[in-house]
Write a structure and sequence with these properties.
Keywords: Membrane, Transmembrane, Transmembrane helix. With 414 residues, the chain is an all-alpha fold. Helices cover 64% and strands 2% of the residues. Strands 1-2 form a two-stranded antiparallel ribbon. Helix 4 crosses helix 5, helix 5 runs parallel beside helix 8 and helix 6 runs antiparallel to helix 15. The chain is globular, with a radius of gyration of 23 Å.
């Protein structure tokens, strides 16, 4: 329960295993309810006595001990101006979620500009993001999912800047490390970038090998970075591979270090035992397609959405899937095609791998929610902006679509 961790910060920055939520959090749940878990109890809200501990979601266990304190720290700091402006604590924390979303939209804008796209498309993809179902659920309620969209947009911008030699390899790896520290599910975008780099290394190695054979020499041809135009470069295969290895290592270091820290922090009490389904080969294989058509569904299963949400989720998912496929087919600048390959490899393989890791580490299997892949949404929106012909007409069409999505999103919670 993220609100509980935020209410305890900064006096209690790290949530312990087996820790219970405090009285203030239980009172907020009585007054406002909890998404998908508990409806408000207005009679109890008017009083000072909370319900028995076992009547609250998860038996009043916090469960936030699985996350590093980074999301909590950033969200708490972002909420302070709203608290000083007179908002109550819960409203201020929700506004901090909106700040995460605004940051993601701004990062997407700068990404499109680095790709040479016009300002209209930059504004349009930001509107498409803000009007999406994942953005509404993650920014309206206090949730770590809000950080996934920002992390995804930030890493895509950093990757594009890396190809333009504006960001060094070590910084890209450090950003990947921070992303996974903020929330492990950021591994989807980090993995996509690593695959894109590995594929680019192979493609460039084959190009240089072919050039060497045609020229009839054994010397290393073009051992330095090539200029591709429009500010983009083609790094050497070695630089590609070292950077990809750094991205993969960042995931291992981030997750491994946090698991070690969690083990060293003493438990506050008995840890609740989680249970799940019996893992089968078919169940694991089903995870490979889970994020394709539900990528824009966010926190809610399609069957539980209202009609407005279903239209936005289905249309958005279809748009991203088509755009990512087109990037594989049409002649495209190396970064975009490489990123599209990374997108598809991540979306099809990381689901089963994460499910398998849950079985090995936690001892049980559960169907992964579609929101796990939310960090890939900004990359998909970049593909959408890039596939359309570069004319003001198509830019205006995209902007109209973004404005329509943002307007329709007002009906998601109805």
């Amino acid at each position: 329960m993220y609100v509980d961790a935020l209410l305890k910060f900064p006096q209690h920055p790290v949530i312990q295993r087996g820790e219970l939520i405090n009285d203030q959090t239980r009172h907020l749940i009585d007054c406002h309810g909890m998404m998908f878990s508990r409806a408000p109890e207005l009679e109890r809200c008017a009083g000072t006595q909370t319900a028995p501990l076992e009547s609250y979601p998860r038996g009043s266990f916090s469960g936030v001990d699985i996350y590093t304190p980074i999301y909590v720290a950033v969200t708490w700091i972002a909420s302070r101006p709203f608290v000083l402006a007179g908002l109550d604590t819960l409203s201020a924390l929700r506004m901090a979620g909106a700040a995460w979303l605004a940051a993601a939209a701004i990062l997407l804008y700068f990404t499109t500009r680095r790709l040479g796209l016009d300002r209209m498309r930059g504004v349009a993809v930001g509107a498409l993001l803000i009007g999406s179902v994942p953005a509404w659920w993650s920014a309206t309620f206090v949730s770590t999912d809000a950080a996934l969209l920002t992390v995804g947009a930030g890493l895509v911008l950093a990757a594009i800047a890396w190809w333009q030699r504006a960001v060094p390899s070590w910084l890209l790896c450090v950003l990947g490390l921070l992303a996974v520290w903020i929330k492990f599910q950021a591994v989807f975008i980090v993995g996509a970038l690593a695959v894109a780099l590995i594929w680019s290394a192979g493609a460039e190695w084959l190009r240089r090998r072919g050039m060497t054979r045609r020229m009839g020499v054994h010397a290393r041809i073009g051992s330095h970075t090539r200029l591709l135009g429009d500010g983009f470069t083609e790094p050497t295969p070695r630089r590609y591979l070292w950077t990809a290895a750094g991205m993969a290592g960042a995931v291992l270091v981030a997750q491994g270090s946090w698991l070690l820290i969690r083990a060293l922090v003493p438990a506050a009490g008995p840890t609740p035992v989680s249970t799940g389904d019996v893992p089968t080969t078919g169940a694991l294989l089903s995870e490979s397609g889970r994020f394709v058509w539900d990528l824009m569904a966010g926190s809610v299963p399609m069957e539980n959405m209202n009609p407005v949400s279903q239209v936005l989720a289905c249309t958005g998912s279809l748009l991203l899937v088509v755009a990512a496929l087109v990037q594989l087919i049409i002649p495209a600048r190396r970064p975009l095609r490489a990123l599209a390959i990374g997108f598809w490899v991540a979306i099809l393989t990381l689901g089963p791998l994460i499910a398998l890791s849950n079985i090995l580490v936690e001892g049980y299997y559960f169907a992964l929610p579609s929101r796990y892949a939310m960090a890939l949404v900004p990359l998909g929106l970049v593909f959408v902006a890039a596939i359309l012909p570069r004319s003001r007409f198509f830019g205006a069409i995209l902007l109209l679509g973004g404005a329509t999505a943002a307007a329709l999103s007002l009906g998601i919670g109805q």
